[in-house]
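User: Sequence in, structure out. Go.
Assistant: Echoing your sequence, followed by the structure tokens.
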Amino acid sequence: MMLALILLTAIGVIVLAERSTEHLPFAIAALSLSAAAVSFVVGDFERALLLAGVLAAAVSAASAVKHDYSALKLTVTDLPLMFAGTATFFASQYPRAVLAVVIGAAAFVLAIIATLIHGTGPSIALDVRLFLFSVNLVCVVIAFRLGGGAISFQRNMAQRRCFYSTFMASLIDPQSWQRASGLVPSDIANDPLPLMAAIPARAIDYPDIIVIQHESIFDPRIFGLPVDPAVEAFLSPSNGLHGILNVDIFGGGSWQSEFSLLTGLSSASFGSNAYHLFKQGAGRFHNALPHALAALGYRTMLASSCRRSFLHYDEFYRSIGMGERLFADDFPPPFDVRQFETTNSDAVFLEAAFAAHTKAIAEDPAPRFLYSLTNFNHGPHDRRLATPGLFETERSFAASSLPDPQYAEYYARLAETASSWKRIKLALAANFPKRPMVIVHYGPSARDGETDRSATQFARRSAPRVSHILCDRTAEHRP
């Protein structure tokens, strides 16, 4: 009787976690297999089922949290990222979510301890446990294949359902367990792509090239939302080019866009390894944009709003030709990294980044390539990070067009970024009136095809499929 009650409870947990019947047979089979595996440790089915149910609940809850903040569910390939600097970053960006996870983890540990102590049932013979494990393993394989295999689970990665089955499917997907030390491209042909013929330079002097990735910025006009003149001038300068940039990532992993921009290769070509390109790809790419510009006499610099320890950035960027690499913990006073990380303000970071850029030009007049990575508008947007007392008019303007406080916060941060950039742009023009410059901004924006949903949902996604790109060329800085 007790075993049947525990089984029904565990299945109920799975039904709640799945929220769909599409992969429910696979989820139940995976739960049974998990219980059979645990039974080798505890020796009875009561505790094995309880522990398997607790584990399923923990996995589903963690996946739901990840989906809330990235629009993608948890898979086994996410776990190594926790040890690559992202855990600290996530804690600083999402303190409430991290607190909830810590409390959930504590409850998970207590549930395991209570089950081990108080849930003892009759011992089961080893040959019976082996038989049930074998039967469940066959059932899992059959259900996995009947459900469409790995492709079927990958197609609904962004849907808010099948939390448990998606994670368990990633455990048995061979691509999830590729060697961490290797890269396996899946769609790169042996024949090179045809390239355009070289053309003569239009000017003797090479322009400075400044590329700024504005993390998690999207153009509200994509959803029919109005913008004020200052934001409009930032998103679509009157004498510049602007438009939509399709990228190969969604729901996180902005470094994959960085990789694609600088190497000319799609990060999607590396399958499940795409998340780990900065670790596995260090020293493997020798035809990157910084290398090419350095060969033309450019001095190359990375200015990142993350710390040097984040996600192997330092080693990867060094390997692709970034001669100087400045991180948030490298900038000299009055920049204070601890104070900066309370808001990640673009006003503070861009001033420090361009102070370093200006100083480098004074020391060496050679043309420069600056690649700057901001983080101000990364989610969540339930905290007020825009400068207190400023941009309240812009906040009210946004709220009048979309009555959502998170969108209003997003727009206030966007307005602060636009104001900061206008000030820096004027300083560049004043300090270097004769120095040609090409300035490119791009930033993750919203998913295409979902204009009926609240725009703030898209602002919280750190790296979706569509990005906004603009090329800003002022009259004083025309190459």
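User: And one key feature?
Assistant: Strands lie at 208-213, 241-246, 299-304, 324-326, 368-373, 437-444, 466-472.
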